[in-house]
Every structure is written in C-alpha cells, then in structure tokens.
Design brief:
Blueprint (H helix, E strand, L loop, with lengths): L15 H5 L14 E5 L2 E4 L4 E4 L2 H4 L8 H13 L11 H9 L12 E6 L2 H16 L3 E6 L7 H6 L17 E5 L12 H18 L6 E6 L15 H12 L2 E5 L23 E4 L10 E6 H4 L15 H16 L2 H20 L5 E7 L2 E6 L9 H13 L2 E2 L1 E3 L5 E4 L7 H18 L2
Parallel strand pairs: 3-13, 5-6, 5-7, 7-8, 8-9
Antiparallel strand pairs: 1-2, 2-3, 4-10, 9-10, 11-12, 12-15, 14-15
Bound molecules: pyridoxal-5'-phosphate.
C-alpha cells in the first residue's frame, strides 16, 4: 500500500503486515493479532479466530469486552455530549460519579470523601504526589523496590520494577527514595513472609536514620499487591504497618490501586482486604471498562489543599468516560462480580498450584482474586527464567489463550481473567496452561 492510499475499511482487503509497520516499535509486542471485536472474555481477530483474553488489556476490561450495559451507556452519553470540559461546565455523568465513587473509599465514611478525575494511571499518581506535596509542604516521597507507577518523568522516578522504564532518562525527580517491597520468595533473610515484612520495615527505618528525615517525606506510595513487579502479595500486616509509620511521622499514605482496583482481587479495592484507611487512593485501568479515565479519592479537606487551578487537565472527567464508569459500577454490583472474581480466583489458584507441583521451574503460584502470577525460576538457585515464561506465553497463544508476563526479569506469567469469567472458561484456561507448561518444558 502506498502512502496516498486510504486505509482499508474491509478487513478482507487489508494488508496488515504493511499497516503494522506504521506502529512505533516502542510498543513492546506480545502478539501480532489484529482484533476486530471483543465479547466478554473473548477477542475475535480479523480472520475470525477466537482467543480467550486472560490479559484484560493489562487489567482493564474487568467487566469483559463490550459489556452491553457499558456499551449502551457510552452510546447514550456520546449522543448527548462527548466533551463538556470540567473547568467550563458540569455534566450529570460526572456529578453522579463524584457522588458514587467516593462511597467505595476503603474503611471510611463516604460523606468526607472527594474525587479528582484524570485520564491515565500515571496522571493520577502525579496528582496524588502533587497533592501530598502541597498539603504537607514536604519535598520527598518514598516508594517500593519493584513498584510500577507509570511512565511520566515523575512516575517513572517512583517506578523500579525494571530498569527499562527509567534507564537513560536521568535526571529524574529529586527527593524520591526506595525501600524493598516484602517479596517472600526473593527476600534476602528467608522465605518466611513475616521475615520479609520485618526486613522491609527495617529498611524503611534505616532510610529515615541514614538518608532522609521522615518529617521531610510528603507521602509513601505503595501498591497493595505488586503489579508489573511480578504479582507479589505482601503479608497481611504490610499496609497496617505502613499506616502506623505514616501516622507516626505525619506522612500521607498513598495506595496505588490502579491495577488492583475495581474488583480485580475479589474486593472492590485490594486495600479492602485490610483495615487500613489510606489518605489517597489512586485509580485507573478498570475504572471505566476500557475508556481512558483515572483519578484519586481523598478526604475533601485534603483535596481543598489544592487552590483552584493548582492542578487539572483538559480531558479529566470526560463525559463518555464517566458514563462508562457509572455503568461499570452498576455491572460490578448487579452481576456480583466481586464474588465471582473471588470464587474463580480460588479455582484458578488451586488448579494452577496443583499443576505447579508437577513442574519444578514453577517456583511459586501466588495471587489474590483474579490477579494471579506463576514465577518461573531454576529450582534451588531461583535464577529467574524469563525464557520459560516467554515459551509458556507462546505455547498458550498457539492454543488461543492470551497471557502476559511481569516481574523485573520478565520471569512471571500473569493470568488476568475478566471478572465475568465463567467456570467453563477457567477450565479451558487451566487445561491450556497445563499443555503450555508441558510444551515449554517448565
Ligand atoms: N500504577 C500501577 C499499579 C500500574 O499497574 C500502572 C500501569 O500498569 C500505572 C500506575 C500507570 O497507569 P497508566 O499506564 O494508565 O499510566
């Protein structure tokens, strides 16, 4: 196809190889599939092949692809008004979302909570850190090794899940400090989860004793379960311990629920598995079933630390995205998706743990709800085996199951089923992973 030709509108005549060359190579690719439509847990390619999508577009399509209720809400809103800019006017979808979403704030009364909306997870993290700095008038932030918080200059400074996200981009933001996340499998003081927790907390104490005064720290930013860093579930005492440290020093606790939120772990937020009340909850991904929307939840008093104009953005709180978010909340409640995520997650975890017992290179199967990872490593040395993780993905793809990797070395296979997934689909996925593990020689 020459540059002057119009792109094909019929998939039958498309030269996909030629068209694909126009996509920037910075998009590291899992597959070359060209997808024409999605239905629930499935993606259908331009040539009519069906794939079970256990990637969820990286933990976004929690209500499944093209949920009729979400589609109808988007269509109806788009026909009324698409963009009604937040500084200029209000729109009903946005106002309703500002009323309903703060009710989900973990472990807090709804009437004190407020919402600020933006477009991507990274933007929402930026908002949280900026708000923490303004509210505390402190310059520094603490984050965790292995964490992923986005790709803007500010958020990649917080990110340490892999060097590719920050290497060659220095200088980064000053005043950002990292301590180890409790990662029992790779904890230097032993695999006991409590030892991993004690190690992380001791490192935080040491940071305050050696490197930065706690009274200079505006916020601690933490994922309740490491996402890109490898689906690492910390011991239950982790968030409560951070809450105590934050309280002791007047630091704000910012919980990054971008990947863990909107039912992914079987509760609305992963923080809901704990008694912890964060200061700021960061949201993205599943919030609007695939339309770009993100935001932070925070006490109204805290949000008031921002003078009008101190933060904002053209598209934050887009009307169509807000309508999709309202429909997403409806679907999660009406279809009992938290309970389904918890139940299907247990079934997947049990089945995958049983498979792992026959595969010596599966060092650990871990997760909560439908956020499940299989870590591939050499038995004994625990040397990460990204090659095996990649082979498992390739074998699964050949059998029409889509999976992702995660982890610093790409050594974790991520299984991210939609919250609507059924018993039959879970059985198909488990059987496919069984075959993929065998074919990959794991
Ligand atoms: N925070 C977490 C925990 C994430 O997993 C991600 C994305 O993967 C982000 C923040 C950044 O979100 P976005 O890619 O929408 O900017």
């Amino acid at each position: 196809m020459t540059e002057t030709e119009t792109p094909p509108t019929s998939t039958a005549s498309a030269d996909w190889d030629a068209l694909r060359r126009g996509v920037a190579p910075v998009w590291a690719r899992y597959t070359d599939l060209v997808v024409e439509r999605g239905e629930g847990s499935w993606l259908v390619t331009a040539d009519g092949e069906r794939y079970l999508d256990y990637t969820c577009g990286i933990a976004v399509t929690n209500t499944g692809h093209a949920h009729p209720r979400v589609v109808a809400a988007i269509a109806e809103q788009a026909a009324r008004v698409i963009h009604a800019q937040q500084n200029v006017v209000h729109h009903p979808a946005g106002l309703l979302l500002h009323q309903r979403l703060p009710r989900r704030f973990p472990n807090a009364a709804d009437d004190e909570r407020g919402l600020f909306l933006s477009n991507s997870g990274a933007e929402a993290i930026e908002a949280a850190v900026k708000l923490a700095k303004v509210a505390t008038r402190r310059p520094a932030a603490v984050a965790f090794r292995g964490g992923f918080h986005g790709r803007t200059h500010g958020t990649m400074t917080l990110t340490t899940s892999a060097v590719k996200y920050r290497g060659h981009y220095e200088p980064l933001l000053p005043g950002v400090y990292h301590v180890p996340f409790p990662y029992p499998l790779r904890n230097p003081t032993g695999r006991d989860p409590e030892a991993a927790l004690a190690f992380s907390l001791a490192q935080l104490d040491e940071l305050f004793a050696t490197t930065v005064y706690p009274e200079d720290v505006a916020c601690i930013v933490v994922e309740p379960i490491l996402g890109e860093g490898g689906y690492v579930v910390p011991p239950d005492g982790f968030l409560p311990a951070l809450r105590a440290v934050a309280d002791r020093h007047g630091i704000l606790l910012v919980v990054d629920e971008v990947q863990t939120g909107f039912g992914r772990t079987g509760r609305f937020f992963a923080t809901d598995w704990t008694p912890v009340r964060p200061d700021i909850v960061v949201m993205g991904k599943g919030i609007a079933s695939g339309l770009p929307l993100s935001g932070i939840l925070a006490p109204r008093e805290l949000l008031a630390a921002w003078a009008p104009g101190a933060h904002g953005g053209t598209y934050g709180g887009n009307a169509v995205a807000c309508a999709a978010a309202l429909a997403t909340l409806d679907v999660i409640d009406a279809e009992g998706l938290l309970a389904n995520a918890a139940r299907q997650g247990e079934r997947l975890l049990d089945a995958l743990r049983a498979l792992a017992a026959e595969h010596p290179h599966v060092a650990e199967v871990r997760g909560r709800g439908l956020m499940i990872g299989l870590e591939l490593a050499d038995p004994g040395t625990l040397a990460p085996r990204a090659d095996l993780a990649r082979s498992i993905l390739a074998e699964a793809l050949a059998r029409h199951l889509l999976l992702l990797t995660a982890g610093t070395w790409g050594q974790v296979v991520r299984v991210i089923a939609p919250l609507v997934t059924t018993d039959d689909e879970v059985d198909v996925a488990v059987e496919t992973i069984r075959q993929a593990l065998a074919a990959a020689g794991a």
